[in-house]
């Protein structure tokens, strides 16, 4: 598990950090808010939104963008791990094995008028909770 990051300590931010460190997967904003309220019941939506924005700015939180999915949030690991999307429940999970970073190899092949910001390995299937239909 990564070390606890240094950040402005507030009960609200600690609740958000604790939820993300306990989560087995990246969480949508609504999931993050709901779970953070279990730690700190009076936590407001605007407070969580502001803290998420600040945590993204200081790199203690990562936004995960996946095609056809809402943004999700996870703690940075420093590893390049693939994500698994369940075709039934639509939950997203981080797989434990690291994949190679291919962007440096492809930078020279990307047209000049394109700006590459990152890459993502995505695997689709069914999670352990969902039967294959």
Shape: globular
- Tell me the helix content: 25-40%
Radius of gyration: 16 Å
Question: Given the structure, what is the number of helices?
Answer: 4
N-to-C series of helices and strands: HEHHEEEEHE
Beta content comes to 5-15%
Label the CATH architecture of the largest domain: Orthogonal Bundle
- CATH fold descriptor of the largest domain: Arc Repressor Mutant, subunit A
Structural class: alpha+beta
Q: Main sheet: which strands, in order across? A: 1-3-2
Tally of separate domains: 2
What is the assigned CATH homologous superfamily of the largest domain? Winged helix-like DNA-binding domain superfamily/Winged helix DNA-binding domain
**Low-confidence segments:** none
Measured distance between first and last alpha carbons: 35 Å
Overall mean pLDDT stands at 86
How does the major sheet shape up?
3 strands, antiparallel
A few lines on this structure:
The protein has about 130 residues and is α+β, with helices and mostly antiparallel strands. The protein has four helices and six strands, in the order αβααββββαβ.
